[in-house]
Structure prediction request, 147 residues.
Amino acid sequence: MTIRDDEPPRSAARKETFVFSPEDGVPPQIGPFAHATRFGSLVFVTGQMPTDPATGWLVEGGPVAQARQVRRNLTAVLRQFGLTLDDVLMVRVYLTSFDDFDLVNADYETWFDGPLPSRTCVGVSGLAVGASIEIDLIAAIPEGDAS
Prediction:
């Protein structure tokens, strides 16, 4: 491969993976994955389930209660990087029932103080541990904070 003088140098960013604990407010893993992967200023957060980190069990109470637990879990992961939900660029929501779409959306809109991130919502036939919702996201560390 030839690199031309007018091409910018290849990014020095390297992939870093992170695993957190219930003491960090993050439920334990249920499979072979990292809770988050950082590449440069981007943080990719693994899909979070409505699992209570203290007990390891799904929370009860229906789709809104489950969505709120997912929010707490996502927030706990983001906190490890000094980030909040307002640093999120992209969200993917997985629902086992689109009957829950409007209820989850009404709660989801309260998650952000700033502009809403991009989002995809997908209906699925099942999720791990019997959850009715799972959410993953991509966040960005603001310029100057990515060291």
About this structure: The chain has two helices and six strands. The mean pLDDT is 91.
